[in-house]
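Weekly puzzle thread! Below is a chain. First person to post its structure in token form gets bragging rights.
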Amino acid sequence: MTRTLYQSHPTAGPVARPSVTLTDLVKTYRIGNSTTRVLDGVTVAFPRRSLTAVMGPSGSGKSTLLQCAAGLDRPTSGSVVIEDVELTRLDETALTRFRRDRLGFVFQSYNLIPTLTVRQNVTLPAELAARHVPASAVRDVLAHLGLDRHADARPAALSGGQQQRAAIARALLADPAVIFADEPTGALDTRAAGQVLGLLRHAVDTAGRTIVMVTHDPVAAAVADAVVFFADGRIRDTLLRPSAEAVAARMATLAAPVEANGGRR
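Winning reply:
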């Protein structure tokens, strides 16, 4: 049975239709004669127009979950459906095209091309998809993100927070069905992290985006509509309308068995 995280959203009306559905997702890695099961039958649905945080101890499988959900890695078994498209049935060419055309990505490392300007970086996915982006739309997004004065600068001239905002601008201009974010505030100071989280929240509330975000930070998770707690390759708990204090308390209970066993899971 698919676990739906929440049945309604303030901007979505009752029973928001899932944008991402994972069913019995399994991911194993074989090293020598041993097999490690990183995802152990994960079934969950992420509603449209929502921001969901995924949290868990180091090595719990949360980044692998994001990679498989985003079509960046193939699960060993199970299915990934985004906007009614079954990713696990696509060949590599079709999967690459779907990621390019329908998904947005925001990573801790920013992944900006150093030889391109900010303007060129943020429009690159649309250009690769042969989709025209009006210059006015580029100007509006950069202005909203406080990057209008840096449109012709290269990434090396920007602060970490500015580079992350450029990565968000790139994701938004790709007109994605879903934005996947992996530790988007992990390398930022408190002020820059707050700005980035505010932009992600704005993308959901105003632009109607769906965002799935892996984070280790309870303050970042508190911006989400729901938090999924992950441990040992499984969903262990969920929390709706989270506060930073409640998130930290739940994380402490997940970490306690690990500490009791000397760090072994």
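Puzzle host: Confirmed. Bonus trivia for everyone else. The first strand starts at residue 3 and ends at 4.
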